[in-house]
Amino acid sequence: MVEEGYSGYENWETWNTSLWLSNDEGMYLTVIDIMEDNPPIYSEPGKAYFANTASEEVKDYFEQLLDDKIITDRISIHRVRWQEVLSDFIEGTKLEKIPAWKKWYKQVVDNPNGNYALWEN
After folding, report:
1. Could you give the CA distance from residue 8 to residue 13 in angstroms, rounded to a whole number?
2. 20 pLDDT exceeds 90?
3. How far apart are CA 13 and CA 91, in angstroms?
4. For position 47, what pLDDT does the model report?
5. Number of C-beta neighbours around residue 92 at 10 A
6. 9, 50, 89, 106: which sits with the fewest CB atoms below 10 Å from its CB?
């Protein structure tokens, strides 16, 4: 049987992206600030919280780090699961005290495949 994923993540790209962003204090704090400034938004039709703006902002930040050659690994950015990356920045940070992030994180933990149409408040 072949093990799926990589070190508990969907794939190597997601794991490596999260590792880069969380292992450098400056990058880590920048991601926290981006997430704090862009909380998840509740969508009534989807009955879920979506962190699309934060995901896009963190992705843009990460792409800039790649462009500036601060991050030197070759990462296929289109394979990164940003939801997984963002979830690494919730527990133990000031974000877990922000209601929208707390609810978003609960929905991600309860429904890791991202089928939010089934998630209820």
Report:
1. 12
2. yes
3. 22
4. 83
5. 7
6. 106
